Amino acid sequence: MDSDELEAFQQELTCSICMNCFLDPVTIDCGHSFCRPCLSLCWEEGQTLRSCPECRGISERPHFKTNIVLKRLASLARQARADHDHCSEEQICETHQEARGLFCEADQTLLCGPCSERPEHAAHSHSPIHRAAEESREKLLKRMGSLCKIREEMKIILNQEAKKTRSFKDYVALRKEMITAEYQRMLLLLREEEQLHLEALEREAKEICEQLKESVLTMTQYGEHLKDMYRELTAMCCKPDRELLQVRKEGPTDLAEIQKPQPVNPELTCWPLTGILDMLNNFRVDNILSQTMTIHHMSLSEDGDDASVMFRDEHHGVSRQPQIVESVVSWGARAFTSGRHYWELDVTHSSSWILGTCKDILITDTNISIYSEEACVLFAKKVNNHYSLFTNTPPYIQYVKRPVGRIGVFLDYGNGTVSFYDVCRASLICSFLSSPFSFPLKPFLCLRSL
């Protein structure tokens, strides 16, 4: 192949983005081909519809398979260029005056034929330069693929962290309303404590918001760092064979040295409310639940924006053994239609539970739905290896510590409020601030099996 033919051959196998021989080439919807790393970086930086860098045609698919034929031709083109330019590129062994055409894996050096047979190299593995370089490129491409997966995972976590920040700010505003309403029911002498509590919440919320902001920034910087590493590996892949093979393989680009930033778990301190339990015990009702506990199969939505709970009676559908039952429910012994009532429920031996009040009619049906304005429930469930608290109306995450002992429930029927308290900490968990009730309410407790 003469110089003109080689030049034409090389031109057809050149990526129009990096102007180098194709590296892991892919062919997109319009028919044009590019290096996978080049196309990946180009589409990410564009922040627009995925369009062809040459014809600007829109590509519907985000991922493409390697064009195996182009990849083989690109490898041949690199070898042809190396063979054509060997006179100027190949290093000549000073001892034997022969070209160093072999690569020693053990010593990471270039050798001529006679040198490879010397005692210090004879036992080592030797490969032609081009083959060794292509194998090195394949290893780099695998590392780049791993980097891509990590970057995609970090994008998802980053979006979740940003969403968590918005949700947390909304929750802080809601919690201010709950705390203010709680203090309004207390004596005027506690106004100073109320102000101190709100100021502490403001400071703590600010600190947590700063942590979330810093977490988002850290993850963003981490993503940029991964991108820089990706570019560095791309640049290494495009180096000439000999220069590529003499680059140190270890360094800061090793994936094992990369530490992923961890998401922040926002959690506010549960401040004790002075005298709250003494006040609530004035309205205490004992033996609030029926002695009869019924077995139900429960389905709890895992969507943070949907706090729905479904119960199905054990007598309908396929029967199950007690040891694999999903939940055990105990309903209130009587319904309330007026007044103030306070009771405590023990959740010490259950990590996942639901408790609160609901309309009396809801518990007369076989299938029970607890997602309506006729029920006020607090429930704990496991999300990402962490137990969190949720309410159903409105469906909110409660960014406070999960109680591990007794929970107090206070129903103020006339004012239309239901509040939940951590008895051990004598602190408020949350309050339902609704309009006055116009229907009977029954307490209930559901303990999920572990």
UniProtKB/TrEMBL annotation:
Domain B box-type: 88-129
InterPro entries with a match to the protein in the record: B30.2/SPRY (IPR001870), B30.2/SPRY_sf (IPR043136), Butyrophylin_SPRY (IPR003879), ConA-like_dom_sf (IPR013320), SPRY_dom (IPR003877), TRIM/RBCC (IPR050143), Znf_B-box (IPR000315), Znf_RING (IPR001841)
UniProt-listed SMART domains: BBOX, RING
Gene3D superfamilies for this protein: 2.60.120.920, Classic Zinc Finger (3.30.160.60), Zinc/RING finger domain, C3HC4 (zinc finger) (3.30.40.10)
Alphabetical UniProt keywords: Coiled coil, Metal-binding, Zinc, Zinc-finger
Domain B30.2/SPRY: 267-450
Coiled-coil blocks: 191-218
Ranges of residues in domain RING-type: 15-56
Name of the featured protein: Tripartite motif-containing protein 64-like
Species of the source: Rangifer tarandus platyrhynchus
